[in-house]
Design brief:
GO cellular component, one term: membrane
Organism: Aplanochytrium stocchinoi
Structural class: mainly alpha
Domain Fatty acid hydroxylase: 119-212
Strand order of the largest sheet: 5-6-7
GO biological process, one term: lipid biosynthetic process
Keywords: Membrane, Transmembrane, Transmembrane helix
Low-confidence stretches: 1-9, 278-283
Amino acid sequence: MGNFFWGLLTFYEKMPALEYFQTHLLMNMLVFAVTYTTTYLVVYVWLKDYLHLRKMNRKFPSRYLVVKEMSRCVSSVVILTVEEVVMFELWKRGYVLNNLSFSPNIWETHKFWIVTLLLLSVFWGEAHFYWTHRLLHSFPLLYKSVHKVHHESLNPDPYSGISFHPVEASLYFSALPGLSLFPGPVPSWLYRFFSWGLLVGPCFVHLSYDIPMPRFALSVSFSNPFPYVKLGFHIPDPISINVKDGRIQRNNTPVRLDELGLLSRMCYRHFIHHSKYSMYPNGRHRAYNFGGFPFWDKLCGTEYYPPA
């Protein structure tokens, strides 16, 4: 099985561009369909009534908007595949990804570097997303003609994730060539998973749901006749969000952002990014939470803190 998987990841080297495009388009569409459609069906259709109180905005996007988002997602997947084919052709000519490694033994020979590379790729992907995203918000022309398409989703859903204008899709997936800048060998599987990470990551950030993290409790009793250990867990009640100022409450009691689970914090931060920004007369606007993670927003002062 290991040899089969390795062969699946490395056979592209000998493929012509058209066949490479067709194969990658099929694979990327499959990854997109399984991730986005499954998530949407589970959360927004099958468990809609059960999870309704955990939705950050109790309203649901219109079917018309969801269909538009789906069509834009398909366009974005095609653009990703085109960028991969262009990189494939440039790589064959020695222009990019000269550090790409197809060696099946790279883990045995470069363990420390591979671990470092995984961390670097996450840092690079987040930095690229933060600064290109902030760029699209910094110039009125770019926002109105390009990024505003994505912000039609004031109440985001999974399909909002890569519902991009073609220019924004090209810019977003341009993080891929950045792997060429790394000083050591980059295994081909990391390039593939980095590409798929860019593809599927936005799906979960745009869920717009409070995803609770169960709280575990351990109790030990030495009462007669026998001592026992009891492990229990508690799922917190749903939160409610004031859409105007982002204030978080649970059972009419204020809740701090850091009290939420990791996934809920990520969904909340991007929900605020979509639902709260102020337009100014000159066409500029104040936006918050440009990153997928809070690192760059905290560093650059663009994180939104809900009032207590």
